[in-house]
Amino acid sequence: MKFKAERMIKIREQLGMNKAEAARKLNMSAMGYGRYENGQREPSFQTVCFIASTFNTTSDYLYGLTDDPSPNVITISSSEDPELFSFVNSLQKDKSLEKRLLECFNKLTQQNK
């Protein structure tokens, strides 16, 4: 698999970030990030997965295996959003609560259309 730097650039631009902002968000040096974008360096698989997660896309998209940049998994971190993490955790433990909340969600989203 070959990393498609142009796809990382496209996602970064869609997020409205410049290279320096993207590097900070990924906790890497601007120079290191720039080497990925200009194709001087190939990121490891783990780094591609981290970039995909951080930029809300998939590693398959960044490798050119799919043309759909939409993620199919969402990770919720207890340290980044403890309330949302607790909420989702409660839903996983209580399937009847999950069903009731999904019904409410569907009604609310249908009313907003």
From TrEMBL:
Record InterPro entries: Cro/C1-type_HTH, Lambda_DNA-bd_dom_sf
Cited Pfam families: HTH_3 (PF01381)
Family matches, as SMART domains: HTH_XRE
GO MF annotation: an example: DNA binding
Protein keywords: DNA-binding
Gene3D superfamilies, per database record: lambda repressor-like DNA-binding domains
Domain HTH cro/C1-type span(s) in chain numbering: 8-62
Domain of life: Bacteria
Matching PANTHER family: HTH-TYPE TRANSCRIPTIONAL REGULATOR ANSR, TRACRIPTIONAL REGULATORY PROTEIN-RELATED-RELATED
Listed name of the protein: DNA-binding transcriptional regulator, XRE-family HTH domain
